[in-house]
TrEMBL record:
Residue ranges occupied by any Alcohol dehydrogenase-like C-terminal domain in the UniProt entry: 205-339
Residues of the Alcohol dehydrogenase-like N-terminal domain: 34-163
Summary of subunit composition and partner proteins: Homodimer.
PANTHER family in alphabetical order: ALCOHOL DEHYDROGENASE, ALCOHOL DEHYDROGENASE-LIKE 7
Keywords: Metal-binding, NAD, Oxidoreductase, Zinc
GO cellular component, one term: cytosol
Obligatory cofactor(s): Zn(2+)
BP terms from Gene Ontology: formaldehyde catabolic process
Official protein name in the record: Alcohol dehydrogenase-like 7
A Pfam family assignment: ADH_zinc_N
Family indicated by similarity: Belongs to the zinc-containing alcohol dehydrogenase family. Class-III subfamily.
Amino acid sequence: MENVGKPIRCRAAVCRKAGEPLRIEEVVVAPPEPREVRIKIICSSLCGSDVTRWRMSDQSAIFPRIFGHEAAGVVESLGENINEVKEGDTVIPTFISDCRECEDCLSEKSNHCSKFPHKTSPWMPRYETSRFTDSEGEPLYHFLNVSSFSEYTVVDVAHITKIDPFVPPNKACLLSCGISTGFGAAWKTAKVEKGSTVAIFGLGAIGLSVAQGARFCGAARIIGVDMNPAKFEMGKKFGVTDFINPKDCANSKPVCEVIKEMTNGGADYCFECVGSASVVCEAYASCRKAWGKVIVLGVDLKSNVSISALEILWSGKTLTSSIFGSLKAKTDIPILLQWYMNKELNLDDYVTHEVGFEDINKAFDLLRDGTSLRCVIWMDKNHAHCHI
């Protein structure tokens, strides 16, 4: 209570320049403004989006910045005009807003908030200002409305979901982004039907979450496509029934032809989880005519998708995207966590590594090397399992 309404000095992992190791620095976290919440972060998991933006050095790169957006924490203090949460509540911050006020958030058809539309802004969404300064008083920039690589952070209440405090934080944090995105894409976006066939391009954490969501919905066959054959064994834990390595198809048939043969005409649902325009086209070609659906989850920042207009007209296929798995954070995250507590949803097998905050750069190395699905970073080393 002694810090309520006052700045807090704490540690944060600051990125000063694209691609450079993060530095543990003392930073100042301002008190929350109206409709904002200051959170004490318990742990974060490292997502591929953090690594992608950390690498970027073009005009869209903004530094110095505090990354991190998959997290679990406890409300330390509140700004004015908040009744959704109180001090001491356990919460998950999310990059996507659920304001519960705009037409989109009030509709069952959309999770694309109109009041706070998704963007990679360096500021707080409501006021376009930062809550972080460094030891010299210079501003530090936010990332994806969360910035969880700090012992304390400030998040708009529209980006906060209250959760059951009995859920282990190192599992709860996974639902801030990637796992929710993949599972929701099968469950909410595609609405995968019982007995259907599914093809997933890319078996990282998001692709494996699609597989788990498809299995949950009753898919009969789930085909994983990945260049790493080791992903098949991991994929089996989440529901993958068949595996295709594109390297094995290079001198014979293209992947789309292999999938068409396996599924008697194409998969009912194809999910692109790589972030490649060419893979979107491959997924489209692999999908069944007339009722096939292609759902794009990966982000290709540099290319356009090129599909013949005639093919679009005659194929009858649906091409769409999935942001945060079409989930409404405040409604659907508690449902997913209840399924986890009921042992209907597997979160445990995504956590392949755990480290203390001082070793946060090891988490980046593990994800870049492809040896980690999710590495959990504990802010308090006394609670960290610190195994690699």
